[in-house]
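Entry 14: structure prediction run for DUF2788 domain-containing protein. Input pasted below.
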Amino acid sequence: MLYEHMDLLESIGLDLLFAAIFFFIGMAIKDVLKQGNVPPFGRKIVWLVLFLGCAGFVTKGLIQLSWEGAGLG
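Run finished. Output tokens:
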């Protein structure tokens, strides 16, 4: 395998790792909310915070791609 492809594979692997971590965090939070009998408003707040964290990660990735495409980074 060529060395140039190692950076791409490393980048994709790291992104998949973060996606898996977000998935497992979501599953753990779902279990805790279910076992703790949390009211619906509290559940919505928890899921909103988790979604905003995930959306921030995705936004960072998109900004990074656009800056690298423009030659800024």
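Notes: Residues 2 and 30 are 42 Å apart (CA to CA). Will compare against the previous run tomorrow.
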